[in-house]
Amino acid sequence: MDNNGIYYCPLCYSQLSVEVVVEDDLFDDDEDDIEAFDSAGEIFVAEGISVQNQTPEEKKVIDRLQAIEEINFTLELLDVKLASFMAVNSYEIVSRLRTLEYAGEPAFAKEGESLAPKILAVAAHMANRGIDDATLRKLNVRTSTYNNKLRVLRILYSNKGQSVISEKIRYVGNAINLSKGIIDVIVEQYEENPLPNSEPDPSTRGAAFIYIKARQAGIKVTKTSLKNVPGVMKNALDRAIKSYEGVIRKGNNRDEDEVEIDEPNLE
C-alpha cells in the first residue's frame, strides 16, 4: 500500500481493488446477537428440568426447594448457621421429607399443610440444632406444630447412634428371647430403612417391626408374645403391623414404577 492508500500486487505491481473497512463495521453488533444475550423477563430453568413435562413428584420436589429458599430469606437474619445448613443440604432435606410424606407418616403427610414447619423440623433435626420460639414466631410457625414433628423425627431417626425404635427393638427382642444375632440383624434392617408408622408409641412400633421382619425370615414370633411385653400397647400392635405392611406395599409399588431406582432390600 502506498501513501495514498492504494494496494499493489507485490509480484506484478498491478493495482488491487480492496474494500476499505470502516472502523465502525468491525463493531457492528448483529441484532440477533443482541437478542441472544437479552434475557430480561425470561425464566431460568436448570438443565435437565422441563417445566412443561414435570411429573407430579418433580413438582413437589421443586415446590419444597423453593420453600427452603423463601424460609432462608428470613432465617439467615435470625440463625445464619441453620440457614447455611439448609442451603447446602437442601436436596437431602427434601429427600427425607418426601420419604416421610410418601410413606404416610401422620405428622408429615397431611395434605394442604404448610411446608415451613415440616421443612424446619427436618432441617433442625438433621443439623442437630434447636430453633427457639422467637425465631419460629418470626417465621410464622407455631411452636407446638414444630415440636410435634421434631418429636416424631427423634423417634424415627437418631443423630447420636441408634434411634429410639432401634432401642425398643432390642428391648422387645430380648423380652421374647430372640437371639442377639437375630436382634442385631433386625436393628440393622431398621437403621438402613427406618419406616414410618401411624402409631406413635415407640415400643409398639419396635414390636411391630420385629413381627414383620421375623415373618419375612420365617422366624416364629407370635403377636401374643409381643403383646405380653411390658410397654407394648396391646390394642395398638395390630394397627402398627398393618401400618408397616401398608408402607412396605406402597414402597414396592413405587419401585416398580421407577425402574431406574434400585428396589430396597426388605429381606
List the helices and strands and how they pair.
Elements: E1 7-8, E2 15-16, H1 31-37, H2 56-75, H3 80-88, H4 90-103, H5 115-127, H6 133-138, H7 143-156, H8 164-175, H9 180-192, H10 202-217, H11 223-227, H12 234-257
Antiparallel strand pairs: 1-2
Helix pairs in contact: 2-3, 2-4, 4-5, 5-7, 8-9, 8-10, 10-12
Structural description of this entry:
The structure is a single chain. With 267 residues, the chain is mostly helical. Among the domains are: 56-156; 164-246, Cyclin A, domain 1 (Orthogonal Bundle). 57% of the residues lie in helices and 1% in strands. It has helices spanning 31-37, 56-75, 80-88, 90-103, 115-127, 133-138, 143-156, 164-175, 180-192, 202-217, 223-227, 234-257; strands at 7-8, 15-16. A hairpin with a 6-residue loop joins strand 1 (7-8) and strand 2 (15-16). Helix 2 crosses helix 4, helix 5 (115-127) crosses helix 7 and helix 8 crosses helix 10.
Amino- and carboxy-terminal Cα gap: 87 Å
Alpha-beta content class: mainly alpha
Estimated helix fraction: 55-70%
Shape: elongated
| Strand and helix order | EEHHHHHHHHHHHH
